[in-house]
Design a protein that fits this description.
The protein is α/β, with parallel strands linked by helices and 244 residues long. It has 6 helices and 6 strands.
Length: 244
């Protein structure tokens, strides 16, 4: 990111878990046109769960590769960074690419040890204009890509949902971005919405038979598609190009 962005900020801190463990965490913020008065925030989590379960009742002792749940969103943001380096946006429009840590550490039924990096970012946001809107990319590499609007996104930021899905349709990707309503997912967009940011989640929450690859040992590179990453990356870049 340092050879692509104008500025890269590393946010490093220690988080104390409910069990009393201290874990070192890091967020990375790659800033393009950092002084621009109009900003867009794109984010993904770069961490992976320490082990499987308990969401899918699997053995805690098994490690997770995180090819889709974590790495796919990071891959899209790195591709966006390449595009912004090659063809910069106008000076008045800025982009922050945020890679958050600690999203997937704990149990989502117990909110203290999940979405950690996003809460930290909100409390320590870099100086400058607040984002006009934010888009989270999570689990976007599935070979069988289906990205219906996530329910909390549609409720909290319907105008951003329409911006992204209309862009996908204009690019000929409506088959991958259906307008049918998706489920409600607790993810990194929720803290941002609570902080007053119009934030949405682009997520395919149907990963493998019965969603069994999610938080499981099946989240491996052979279940992720480069074509899916390209589709999502195309939409991400086109949304930025359309900001006025």
């Amino acid at each position: 990111l340092r050879v692509r962005a104008d500025t890269v900020i590393v946010q490093a801190w220690n988080h104390v878990t409910l069990r009393g463990d201290t874990i070192p965490l890091r967020n990375f913020v790659a800033r393009f046109n950092p002084a621009a008065p109009k900003r867009v925030l794109y984010l993904a989590h770069w961490d992976t769960r320490p082990a499987t379960g308990p969401d899918n009742n699997m053995d805690y002792s098994k490690p997770i590769a995180g090819a889709n749940d974590g790495a796919s969103g990071v891959a899209v943001l790195l591709g966006v960074a390449d595009a912004l380096k090659a063809h910069p946006l106008p000076p008045g429009i800025g982009v922050d690419l945020l890679l958050v840590d600690g999203e997937d550490y704990g149990v989502f039924a117990d909110s203290a040890d999940v979405l950690i990096g996003t809460y930290y970012y909100i409390a320590h946001r870099p100086p400058g204009a607040a984002p006009a809107f934010a888009v989270l990319f999570d689990m976007v590499g599935d070979k069988d890509l289906q990205l219906p609007p996530e329910a909390y996104s549609s409720i909290g930021a319907p105008e951003v949902v329409d911006r992204v899905w209309s862009t996908a349709e204009a690019l000929g990707y409506s088959a991958y971005f259906p307008r049918t309503s998706g489920g409600a997912i607790t993810d990194d967009h929720i803290p941002l919405q609570k902080a007053g940011v119009s934030a949405i989640d682009v997520i395919d929450f149907s990963y493998g038979p019965g969603n069994t690859y999610w938080h499981g040992p099946g989240d491996t590179p052979d279940h992720v598609s480069a074509e899916s990453l390209k589709i999502v990356g195309d939409v991400a870049v086109a949304v930025l190009r359309g900001v006025k």
